[in-house]
Design brief:
This is Vacuolar protein sorting-associated protein 62. InterPro entries: Vps62. Keywords: Signal. It holds the Pfam family Vps62. By secondary structure, this protein is mainly β. The chain folds into three domains: 3-45, no CATH class; 68-267, no CATH class; 271-571, no CATH class. Helices cover 12% and strands 34% of the residues. It has eight helices and 39 strands. The strands form eleven sheets. The protein has a six-stranded mixed sheet with strand order 32-31-30-27-26-39. Strands 22, 33, 34, 35 and 38 form a five-stranded mixed sheet that branches. A hairpin with a 6-residue loop joins strand 34 (450-455) and strand 35. Helix 6 (526-534) packs antiparallel against helix 7.
Amino acid sequence: MSVIVRTICALFLLATQSMGAREGASGVNISENLFSKKDEALPIDTIFKLPAPIPAFPPSGGDFGTGFFDLGGLQVTQISVFNKVWSTRDGGLDNIGATIFEPQNIPKEFYMLGSYSQPNNKALFGWVLVAKDMSSNTTNPTLKQPSDYTLVWNTESLDINQEGHAYVWLPTAPNGYKAVGHVVTTTSDKPSLDKIRCVREDLTDQSEQYSLIWSNNDLYVYDVRPSNRGIEASGVRVGTFVAQTVETTTNLSISCLKNINANKTSSMPNLQQIDEIMKIYSPLLVLHPNDKFYPSSVNWFFSNGALLYTKGQESTPVTIEPNGTNLPQDGENDGAYWIDLPTDDENKDRVSIGDLNSARSYVHVKPVYGGTFTDLALWVFYPYNGASSAKILFFKNVKLGKIGEHVGDWEHVTLRVSNFNVELWQMYFSQHNKGTWLDASLLEFKVGNKPIVYSTLHGHASYPHVGLTLLGKKGIGIKDDTEQSDFVFNLVAYELISAEYLGSAIIEPPWLNFKRQWGPTIDYDLDKELKRVRHLLLGKLKSLLDKIIKALPKEILGEEGPTGPKEKNNWIGDEV
């Protein structure tokens, strides 16, 4: 090696060491952070805003959209403007780290309840609640300073790409009070006791882990939410996180809030405001271009020959009246009644196709998080669910005979809207017997603030983006396939079918209280259907296919007709 070359190499080595390159087992390693992470913009560097401004809402006489709610002597408001406290570009989702923030622009006489954190792999989009004592109880006010702090964890010893060091503190709550969030500092000095407030115990509820934000060996940072959720639940999500040095799902160190106001629904939208929400956020449902089974309205289905069957009287089915006025009400799904297509082949085929022109979304509006958010579940009815297909290794589209076919198909998506500022925060996509919540920052929008929903071929599960989802493993499974299409159903064509908090203002249609199946039980030989495709596989792959298919829920296999929306667990509870 020449003197010139050795000199250049030595200078380069010194330069990289002075810039902070790490030394590994194989010698000096030029840190990828220097050239790919350190100066690279991250998704969180962008603040997410909805595509279009939210118009002014009509007044309601209540608290909806006013920005402030009284939880029972404790007034809260939602803050989504933050100061960054600490950040790392290592670990976490997509291995690009996470960031911790404090709320800023806190109104006068309001106090911070905890810090906010989120992964760096998505645009900044979050909130925390801040609170003000409105009670007249001077002995036991709704808020008190902590008596001390406990250091949960710090990042001093971590060999990670980070901006300074983080010290995560848990407030020590006075007797009768609980902490609902952490304070994070960049020095080892304890925070001021005036930095945060603890909440009187009767205004708190049990919390649980929701989603992992970041972890590193002995620290786990989780978003948290109330353990008890649903229409009647009082737990209020604070927007804070929990930091744990052991991975446990019980006895979390922080609580959530609880709405003990006697009028919990004063923060909920009225009929006119529900209509405005639908005009702004009603999704656009993109149907698969190769799907021949479309949605229809329930009344179109009834008026075009759908039949009600009674056990023991199968030879004499009866036509169904508009709105299902002659359907059996209440009871339980005991197999005594079911709905089916017309008996003659011509009308059976015609009705199974559906009628997109008549289609409606059937909307159920309910309070969540103690009335601080509103869920709008938008249900769509399909007269028929088509047969499934599979991907088996390099065989990309294997027909599965009758597997997946059934009469009557109820699908839904749910919009979660903040009652503080009427912003869309999350959307739920139902996928057979489960589903996925997605932040608004991760949705596709096409027209204003209307999110896109992609419906799968034949199965009609809902997804936020186009592509193939395989319900299986090792390259074998049922296909959930979505594509771009010109067949689009705007769910703004809606009928409000239920909003329990509005009482007699909403009259539920009789069909909603039909507790039985919207399709007959189909009796087919699953093994016979699987035999059609087993010849494509060798050895253990045949049994793997059998296990994957037979483990699928009956609503995917198509063995049973589905029950209606009101029979689903999410009708009164949270989405799974």
